[in-house]
Design goal:
Blueprint (H helix, E strand, L loop, with lengths): L1 H12 L2 H24 L15 H4 L3 H22 L35 H15 L2 H9 L4 H12 L22 H28 L14
Helix pairs in contact: 1-5, 2-4, 2-8, 4-6, 5-8
Length: about 220
C-alpha cells in the first residue's frame, strides 16, 4: 500500500525534474554499492541492484529495498571484514565494469499541470506515509541509512586511495542519527553525495578508457 501511494503521488504530483532525480538515485546508488562490493579485497558481499524504469517498478517496495540494501550492505561487509580480520584494501586493477555514464534521462516522466511538487516538498509530504506504513524496525533502518554517506565515502576513498574525496561528504555522522524532522534536507544531501561520488567514478572510467586501460560496457559520454 505504501509504495502504491508513492508511485501514484510521484506520477501525478511530482515534477518531471524531481522524478528524474529520484529515479537516477536508485541507479546511481546501486552502481556505487556494486563498485564497493567488487573492489574490497577478500570479501564476497551480494548486492541487489535496483534500476527502475517506470512507476510500476516502484510498487515492488522499491524505496524500502533501497534503504535496507544500503543499511544491510554496510552490516554484511563489516561482518566479513571482522570475521576475516581484514581491512579495506582495494583490488588492483580496479573493477569499474558496473559504472555507467548513463544520465538515465531517457526515461519519460509526466509533465502535466498537476506535476508541480519539487523534490524537497515531495519528501516532506511522503515521510509521514513512510513512517505510518512501515514497522518500527524498518523505518529506523531506512531513516538511519541516511547517516551512511560518510561511511560509503570512506570505503571508496580507501579503495581509490584518494582521501581528499571525503571533503565532498556533508551528510554525517554515521554514529549520531538525526531526527526525521530534517528528512528532506538530509535526503537531498544524500542524493548529492551519491551523484558526486558516481561522477568521480564515471570520470575515472572515462579517463581509463581514453588511456586504453579498459573497454567500458557502455560507450562513455560527457558526465553531468
Amino acid at each position: 500500500m505504501l509504495h502504491k501511494i508513492l508511485a501514484w503521488g510521484l506520477k501525478n504530483f511530482v515534477s518531471r525534474d524531481a522524478n528524474l532525480l529520484i529515479f537516477r538515485h536508485f541507479h546511481v546508488g546501486s552502481e556505487i554499492m556494486q563498485f564497493i562490493a567488487k573492489n574490497v579485497e577478500g570479501v564476497e558481499v551480494q548486492t541487489s541492484p535496483l534500476k527502475p524504469k517506470d512507476f510500476e517498478d516502484i510498487k515492488e517496495d522499491l524505496f524500502l529495498k533501497h534503504d535496507l540494501n544500503l543499511y544491510n550492505f554496510v552490516i554484511n561487509l563489516n561482518r566479513q571484514l571482522k570475521e576475516k580480520k581484514l581491512g579495506i584494501k582495494g583490488k588492483r586493477p580496479i573493477d569499474l565494469s558496473m559504472i555507467t555514464p548513463d544520465r538515465f534521462d531517457h526515461i519519460e516522466f509526466p509533465d502535466r499541470w498537476t506535476n508541480i511538487l519539487d523534490l524537497r516538498s515531495a519528501i516532506e509530504l511522503f515521510t509521514p506515509f513512510y513512517q505510518f506504513f512501515l514497522t518500527n524496525n524498518d523505518f529506523i533502518r531506512a531513516s538511519n541509512s541516511l547517516q551512511l554517506d560518510e561511511t560509503i565515502g570512506i570505503y571508496t576513498s580507501q579503495i581509490l586511495n584518494t582521501p581528499g574525496h571525503l571533503s565532498l561528504v556533508n551528510n554525517k555522522h554515521p554514529m549520531v542519527p538525526e531526527t526525521t524532522y530534517s528528512a528532506a534536507y538530509r535526503l537531498v544531501l544524500h542524493g548529492l553525495a551519491a551523484e558526486t561520488l558516481h561522477a568521480v567514478l564515471v570520470n575515472l572510467k572515462q579517463e581509463r578508457f581514453a588511456d586504453g586501460v579498459i573497454t567500458p560496457n557502455v560507450q562513455p559520454t560527457t558526465s553531468s
